[in-house]
Amino acid sequence: MRPVNAPSSTQNATRQSVEHYENFPVASWLCPPRLRPPIAAIYHFARTADDLADEGDVTFAQRLDDLAAYRADLAAIVAGRAPSTRWPQVFGPLAREMTAFSLPHQLLADLLDAFTQDVHKTQNRQGYADRTELLAYCQRSAAPIGRLLLHLYGVADGRSLQQSDAICNALQLINFWQDLSLDLPRGRYYLPADARLRHGVSDATLLAREQTPEATRLIAEQVAWARELMQSGTPLVHAVPGRAGWELRLVVQGGLRILDKIEAMHFATLRARPRIGAWDAPLMLARAFAM
């Protein structure tokens, strides 16, 4: 995910929401003007932390040190103290918006827990034992964003929170199954170990990115799981008010469209990464209206 400028047309709004669907939508013209600053502050907080954990040619130890310093700055603004001067473009706006909108700071801390876990997992080339463990990670790496956005829109009932978690966690899973060809060479193992064992897919097969029949069945199973999880959360689009509900529709349809593309390529994401293109926008808009 990368910061984007506010779109100037419906097509751009659709394209940009889809390109960044993996974790959360960014502020756009579909967002009420008064909520653009807090959404942008949340986005830049998460984007910068993700970069610390993932981008650049630095050691794992340095990544962990940077995340610890980042966490200390979050704790500082939560306590009403001045943060360090390392990330003024992040913590200055975030401190203002946390005060203005009473943002739940534990959700922001959860994101840092997930990023830190990702560094440890990648460093040790560790995977996830089963779906329960993988979902527990998603609950800290993806679900907090949805809950923060619902907080801004004044949606706080338990059912909506559960549906938001389902959508965000599904989007995270979709990103995993979309990016297998990129993640595996970098030491990221998101395919659950018990499912790999059940389908007879070895670590060597994954590292070699061999699209064997067993690997294809394994990925197909995970894609079906992600689709089911997404569909369980889609009623939320009717609970989120106004234009935000329409942006959520586009985000949901972006995730589902990626699943369509994975299926169309016969689940061969060990070899290639499917992408959304401008030509997908009309179909996604139609499906969004149909919701």
UniProtKB/TrEMBL annotation:
One of its GO terms (molecular function) is geranylgeranyl diphosphate synthase activity. CDD domains: Trans_IPPS_HH. One of its GO terms (biological process) is terpenoid biosynthetic process. It comes from the Bacteria. PANTHER family: BIFUNCTIONAL LYCOPENE CYCLASE/PHYTOENE SYNTHASE. This is Squalene synthase HpnC. It comes from Rhodoferax koreensis.
